[in-house]
Amino acid sequence: MNQLAQNPSNPWIWQPTMNAHNPHYSQMHRQQQEGTYIKEPMFEKPLTPSDVGKLNRLVIPKQHAEKYFPLDGESGEKGSLLSFEDELGKQWEFRYSYWTSSQSYVLTKGWSKFVKDKKLDAGDVVIFQRFRGHGTDERFYIDSRRRGSIEANSRVVARPDAENPWSSCASPHGYMNSVNSGQQASSSTRGSSRRLRLFGVNLECGPDPAEPEHLASGSWN
Amino acid sequence: MNQLAQNPSNPWIWQPTMNAHNPHYSQMHRQQQEGTYIKEPMFEKPLTPSDVGKLNRLVIPKQHAEKYFPLDGESGEKGSLLSFEDELGKQWEFRYSYWTSSQSYVLTKGWSKFVKDKKLDAGDVVIFQRFRGHGTDERFYIDSRRRGSIEANSRVVARPDAENPWSSCASPHGYMNSVNSGQQASSSTRGSSRRLRLFGVNLECGPDPAEPEHLASGSWN
DNA sequence: TAACGAACCTGATTA
DNA sequence: GTAATCAGGTTCGTT
């Protein structure tokens, strides 16, 4: 089911694995039969009640929006379309625009479908990553994790994957590796003290430590 | 501090007085170094709780809106911007539009700032006037008075002005003169019966007669 | 016609 | 004190 597999010699590098039977077999993989990508985190957004409510929009913090999704003059007026792939290879398109009245960047059209499909609630965290290929080749990846979870997406939580060596309290997709520069974090799945540093945030991973706020709002920068 | 002074020979006519030290020295006066204006009342709106509440809008009675602030087809769609000057020469801009859902004309953007700045409460009255110059030259003026007061604006109430010969229970800016065609109203600042007719409305000005409703809702037409 | 979505707005909070 | 940000709203056109 994984469309990308870690390169055994370098956990930063991910390579597509072909699986034509996957109904969500992504355009990315159809178009690019080979090649390597660097998967890197962009930012996270802990969802507010408004982000998952009736407003049908996700506010993207300005510093992240301007860094990763710059709008040129033309697209700034009418907004643009951003395409993402989720952990199943499913494609998601969102209208992305800037609201001058509130000076904020938002995902609008398509966002509510994502919220519904992923059953997102306030406090859940949406994770934005990108795969960078050769030159300016760049593909966006969207993921989420439940409030209080440090799992990067629902796949590991809801569908434990025997292929994945990371267990609960570790990070799938090599986040830890990339953040820790290949050095594996010292976490154990047994024992009373389970602590790790993820993306610059100290995280407790004991037996449900009442979801401390610093965990839910942990961000990459 | 007065930006306009009555013409000694005709109280209907007001002429700008220059005062470069006034921090609110208005564009009107900067642009028009000379000239005369006819100041005339348009209408008043006694403020409802909604007008000063969280709705951040002022409903303008339809007959007044259509008479004084007509919206053409183009501006009817997106609304327009109305500029006013207050008694201090400060400029106020309000978005003005028609809400089809409620069939009403409203001031929206900018209105809440005015309410806050003037400390307006329900029952207070907002006064709309215009200065008419040559041809179609027209400038809007916005003012307010406290609930139960017949003072035309806070200047006389809060900042007694030695230059102004009108005392409490009289009208500044020559309203009385213009309405009574130069004939001074028979009001006295002493005595048990203080009554005057202002813009066609009989007003009691006794010692705080429990703010009768007809006073608070007195209107020019 | 009811629901959705795009645009607009504002106040609390923060830097 | 001032300015920027953004969560939480509203309206209104579209479907």
Automatic annotation (TrEMBL), chains A, B:
UniProt keywords, alphabetically: DNA-binding, Nucleus, Transcription, Transcription regulation
Coiled coil (UniProt feature): none
Organism taxonomic ancestry: Eukaryota, Viridiplantae, Streptophyta, Embryophyta, Tracheophyta
Region (Disordered): 161-192
UniProt name for this protein: TF-B3 domain-containing protein
Compartment(s) where it occurs, according to its Swiss-Prot or TrEMBL record: Nucleus
Protein species of origin: Asparagus officinalis (Garden asparagus)
Pfam families, per database record: B3
PROSITE patterns in alphabetical order: B3
GO cellular component, one term: nucleus
Nucleus keyword on record: yes
